[in-house]
Amino acid sequence: MPRTLYGYLWRLTRRHQIVLSVISVVVFLTSMAPLELQRRIVNDVIGDRDARTLGLLCAAYAGVALAMGAIKLGLNVYRGYVGETATLDLRRQVHARMAAPPTAGVQGPECAETTGAEIAMVIAEVEPVGGFVGISISEPLLQGGILVTVFGYMVYLQPWMALTSILLFTPQLVFVPLMQREINRRAARRIRVVREVSGHLVEEARHESNDDGRGRFLRRIAEVFAINMQIFRWKFSMNFLMNGTYHIGVMAILLVGGGLVIEGRTEIGTVVAFISGLAQLNDPWGDLVNYFRESTTAQVKYRLIADAVDRAPDGD
Asked: pLDDT tens digits, residue range 109-160?
């Protein structure tokens, strides 16, 4: 197997990845259209009391929203297909290699550990790896493209409000990577402990377990529980801080934008578009954070799977 996850996914799904990337570019290039339509409806139509133009722009907004939703639906279904293709391929490879007869002299706990690892890989560990293959290239391209496109549109509309938004967004660039690193370390540790638990269960099924074996098993599952609780605390604390900075950003846009409207230096529709734009910045940023979390977990699991497959006998 290729030594890296990206080497594997490129070898298996490169044609699909190219198509997914093209669809992602189409989606993020059209992401500013709803914002511009909102701004025009509020500024140009409602102020002029033009019912006919209002109806046309609202119909255009609905059409754009439906078209973007349909494209995203197709993108997500296609991603699911690519991910399941990778999952199927990994399960076949793991089973083909791990099902070979054990090497002479490899018996007892070592053999059970190998069987337990195979069970964990075939049933559970390949799922997040395969799922990540489906989003591996298109997700950062899509979400990063939305961030750049929407922020560029906000700068075009009102540079001062855009600067305010990005300044309030900056703290996330500091605390998110630090907190995510702690989550990644614990996720990697959890994978290894769960493998040990799987090996122990196979050994216990083959041979009557003694008190020492039961004690080791109980310690391992208690360790998994403790690791999961640590991950929950870091993960939801990070979500709390991200949501807090988002709402502070909304407050700042209302404060700064409202002041500019009172002074006659901008329009109310611009403020409305900025609030929607900030939501469109917050969502893809959160998706990128989740992407890098899944990326780390998938790469760790892929390395463990590749190492186990490479060490397994080939049955010759």
From this structure: 455 555 555 555 556 678 889 999 999 999 999 999 998 998 888 888 888 8
Which CATH number characterizes residue 56's domain?
1.20.1560.10
Residue 294 maps to a domain = yes
pLDDT, tens only, 22-70: 999 999 998 888 888 888 887 776 666 677 888 888 899 999 999 999 9
pLDDT band at 289 (very low <50, low <70, confident <90, very high): confident
Asked whether residue 36 is domain-assigned, the answer is yes
316 is a domain residue: no
Q: Give me the helices (H) in 42-137, please.
A: 51-98, 108-120, 126-135
pTM higher than 0.85? no
| Longest CA pairwise span in the chain (Å) | 87
Angle at 126 between CA 124 and CA 128, to 5 degrees: 85
123-127, 134-138, 176-180, 220-224: least confident range? 123-127
Residues written for the chain: 316
Residue written as token pair 């590749």: 306
User: How far is residue 28's CA from residue 270's CA, in Å, rounded to a whole number?
Assistant: 20
Give me the amino acid identity at 107.
Q
Closest CA to 118 of 145, 147, 94: 94
Say how far residue 27 (Cα) sits from the centre of its chain: 17
CA distance 72 to 284: 14
Sorted by sequence, the CB contacts under 8 Å of residue 105 that are 6+ apart come out as: none
CA distance 190 to 110: 20
DSSP run (H or E) holding 164: helix 159-206
Domain count, the chain: 1
Residue 100's domain spans which residues?
5-311
- Radius of gyration over alpha carbons of the chain, in Å? 26
Tell me whether residue 304 is in a domain. yes
Q: CB neighbours of 52 closer than 8 A, spacing ≥ 6? A: none
| Residue position matching structure tokens 């046309």 | 56
